[in-house]
Amino acid sequence: MISLQKLFGKNDIFYDLLEASAAEALHSVQALGKLITQPASAQSLDELILTRRKDKKITEQINEELCRTFVTELEREDIEALSNVLYKIPKTVEKIAERVMITGGRLQDVDFSRHLSMMEEATTTVLTIVKELRKRLHLERVKDLNAKLQHIEGEADKLMMELLKDLYAGQRDAIQTIMLKDLYELMEKVYDRCRDAGNVVSLVVLKYS
């Protein structure tokens, strides 16, 4: 006989897993910050690879739980959408770290502190807004957090234009320009993923408000 608990699932399992995934997204950005500030000879992808693998396992567990659970508090499509966008954050951050590694120290004089600060703020906000899913009725709180993510993404766009303007001024050699443009575009994707996560949560909470 199939137990009712298995049929309907634990009420908190998806909240736990989604929050864990959001936490790994934040952790990946923090790990990237450590890597970038280290000398090229000391840089390692180990922590970022571990974070991305942990998040992949969380994503796989979410998919498995969706297969096992007949009824979920949140709609299955919403769980899948949020899980997928959260997984893309550490995956993109790892790509940034890979690019940094293969530059061979040619960008050691570049200051990425503004990007790192904004990415950490964005992923911290994502973790906070995902935690709000348990409450669901706090629509105004979620709106405020989502507006913050939209603002960060907008500021990131302005920063991107500012940095591209500097690149196009021709102060760096061609190889460095290509490297930086590639990195800036990948960093912009991190903000976009965070914005997407906020939009998913906002739509979910709106359904239940």
From TrEMBL:
Record flagged with keyword Transmembrane: no
Gene3D superfamilies referenced in this protein's UniProt entry, alphabetically: Phosphate transport system protein phou homolog 2, domain 2
Looking up InterPro entries in the UniProt record yields: PhoU-like_sf (IPR038078), Put_Phosphate_transp_reg (IPR018445), UPF0111_domain (IPR052912)
Q: Which Pfam families match?
A: PhoU_div
Entry keyword set: Coiled coil
- State which residue ranges cross the membrane: none
What's the domain of life for this entry?
Answer: Bacteria
Note the coiled coil stretches, chain numbering.
Answer: 135-162
Q: What PANTHER family does this protein's entry cite?
A: UPF0111 PROTEIN YKAA
Q: Which family does it belong to?
A: Belongs to the UPF0111 family.
Protein name, per record: Pit accessory protein
The source organism is Prosthecobacter fusiformis
